[in-house]
Amino acid sequence: MTVECLTFDISGDFGFFKKFYTTSSPLTYEFPPKTSLTGIIGAILGLSFEERYEMFKCKFGIRILNPIEKIYVGINWLNTRARTSRNFPESNKEFLDILNLPPKPDTAAFLGMAWLGQSPHTQAKLELLKKPKYRIYYPNTNKYFNELSEHIKEHKSYYTPFLGISEFICNFKFNEIFQMKKIENNSSEVKISSVVPVCLIDMDQSNPINFNFSNLYKVNAPNIMEYPRIVKSYENIIYNPIGKAIKVIVKEFFKLKNKNNEFIENVVLF
Q1: Cα–Cα distance for residue pair 251/249, rounded to 1 Å
Q2: Domain 2-73+125-267, what fold?
């Protein structure tokens, strides 16, 4: 049985998908995890936060199109942890009354740090993706397929989508709607164009992953999130940083063909 699969590309000048275990010097995932993809699609469709959580029941595929390139930039964060106790009034209100300013706590904290000779900012280095580009696979078995296809084709969105943080606007472009067929119980090695979750690799085989075909990396990324923004599961995912196909034995994959029944590629959805 075959179903339709919407494919579209997302790209931008920069991207930042923060790794959950990094703090003062944040690092980025090399591709948007499922939590970010649901946000991008939810922004295009104009879904509420509650509706976006329903998107985690859907399955996606993602392929790296542009080779991963990273840069590091310094970002000034607002310093919210500095102590402002020395010769400083006990309450923000008292301090603002002295300066005859309106009651804005942020203003009080900012001026109070200047009072003590402290910088109101702290600098951190961010690891950013430069010119990221990905192909997204969205099957007809998912909710909102027709609505999303219409939005992508007409290049319209309800909210502005972005690549990780609001400063990095996400562009999207329709690619094609292919016919997709699910292949199960496969015991032979196949080329997979998309990133591959480790849970779908058939580890019972003697050599389930061909490390000689391409350089592979593994990353642990959030997979399922529940309200209110609680991550329920993580997924180990392997990928090639230049977007080269992965040779692997998987428990299931999807074969894509065009309208002329010509083979296009194999992908994995998760």
Answers
A1: 7
A2: Alpha-Beta Plaits (3.30.70)
